[in-house]
Amino acid sequence: MDQSAANLTLYLDFGSQPSRAVYSLLAHHSIPFTLIEVKIINNEHKSDYYAQINPNKKVPAITDVLPNGNTFKLSESHAIMRYLCATREAIPESYYPKGDIIRRSQIDYYLDWHHGNIRAGNEGYVMNRFIKPFITGRKTDDKVLKESMGLLKKSMQMLETYWLRDGQKYLVGDKISIADLACAAEVGQIGSIEGILEDIGGFREKYKRVYEWLERIETEIPALGETNFTSNLMLEQFWEMLENKISPKL
Amino acid sequence: MSFTHPDGLTLYGDLFSQPVRAIHAFLTLNKVPFTFKHVDLMGGENKSDWYLENIHPQGKMPAIIDKSSKGLYTLFESHAILRYVTHKYPSLVPEHWYPTDPVARARVDQYLDWHHSNMRQGCTYFLVYKYLVPSIMRKINGKDYKESDFEAYQRENNRKLMHYALKQIETFWLKPNSTSPKLSLIQSPPHTKFDSPYSHLTIADLSSACEIAQVWLLDPEEMDLERKYPLTYKWVTSVVGIKEVAEVQEEFLRKNKMKTPGTIKRQKEEQAKL
């Protein structure tokens, strides 16, 4: 049973990778929703107003008005995507199937693995390499940076040799799923930021299958391709500012 | 030497690992038939040839292998495994563990996701940097070992994360469940009949309590659970007090060789009884 437009609200920051994954799932399938931007750069996620929506103070989050009139609040991008697949008929089965428990469990496996690997690696590296130094004015300890980059490289290697083994087109089987959206929102950042590319030692050459897969997802899901692109432009500018601000001291 | 998987469901893991205990307890208390194959985590058995060839090419654990006439199905990640078991055995596993209603289910999913980067990250890596790394480094460097700045940084970061996660359990996760007098992380769906000792619980409670109990047992003074997080203490002890959870926890404690304040205290208590 489909629920109407006014019922669903998505709170996000387009700079947040999990936000882009949820956004693209909705936008690509033309599911009506109200979009409210919560700008992290302005600390809006720490406001009392946003605490009412998500006491964990993170984006994304949704609110959904249920048939009984109650408003349901939900955070955590993977939980949100599963919930949307269960309640919005416009989303095809392949994204998170109801019946096929084998395929479903493989998607669950990816989404869990993602947290401690792709997400921790990518987000951890960007935080340690760029954001923290910008805020504190101090370069992050080399050992910490090495560990972050090590995790990111290890995760990319797993994508290349395990998830995308046998040249398959998507992370789980031969159809797109919410796993592809979650991953592409993160990996989409890597090839575009000169600083990250330099440190990882190349993308297209080192991780050929991942590169082709990313191109496929960003082309097939324009809502993700476009929001990744816009976010990367902003990140690139931000990185340049960082390099100018911190390099004289280092 | 060729390797044959047992028929039916097999769990490969080490009871030293919190997720393995959660899965083992879940299967046992729901009377799901399974074989448990111990894989020595501390001894690196998951990196042995037989494991890399037959279970996972990078040594990932825990794993379940489901062998049927249709063939072999392999699955990793404890939360994926817990969900798979509830779907595969609907007649054995009561619905309250992972409700079918999308709203109720989403609440469980919300916790299971949050858990990774918060409770699990904090608890596990606090223990790694406070006890495991020093114990390995002492074996290599002997008395000359001194905690490096990097190790101290990681230990302290994860310690803070662990306490942040516990505070969230105490003030956010355990708060909304007013429909049952029994504590749980997830608000039970409206139609729930609290007709069994566990009907207020979900797989989120099992996963979380096993994780928290690990630090509580090994370093009780650090966690200071009863005093600092009284609601959490009440809830954790009720979940790990479940017979099938207590049993695997007991086995882990019995076999555990890591010297921590909690285990030393336990050994002294046991010796005092003799």
Automatic annotation (TrEMBL), chain A:
Keywords: Cytoplasm. Residues 6-92 form the GST N-terminal domain. Pfam families: GST_C (PF00043), GST_N (PF02798). GO terms for biological process: glutathione metabolic process. One of its GO terms (cellular component) is cytoplasm. PROSITE patterns: GST_CTER, GST_NTER. Residues 100-241 form the GST C-terminal domain. The keyword Nucleus does not apply. GO terms for molecular function: glutathione transferase activity. Belongs to the GST superfamily. This is Glutathione S-transferase.
Automatic annotation (TrEMBL), chain B:
Residues 101-262 form the GST C-terminal domain. Residues 7-93 form the GST N-terminal domain. This is Glutathione S-transferase. One of its GO terms (biological process) is glutathione metabolic process. PROSITE patterns: GST_CTER, GST_NTER. GO terms for molecular function: glutathione transferase activity. It holds the Pfam family GST_N. It comes from the Eukaryota. It comes from Halteria grandinella. SUPFAM superfamilies: GST C-terminal domain-like (SSF47616), Thioredoxin-like (SSF52833). The keyword Cytoplasm applies.
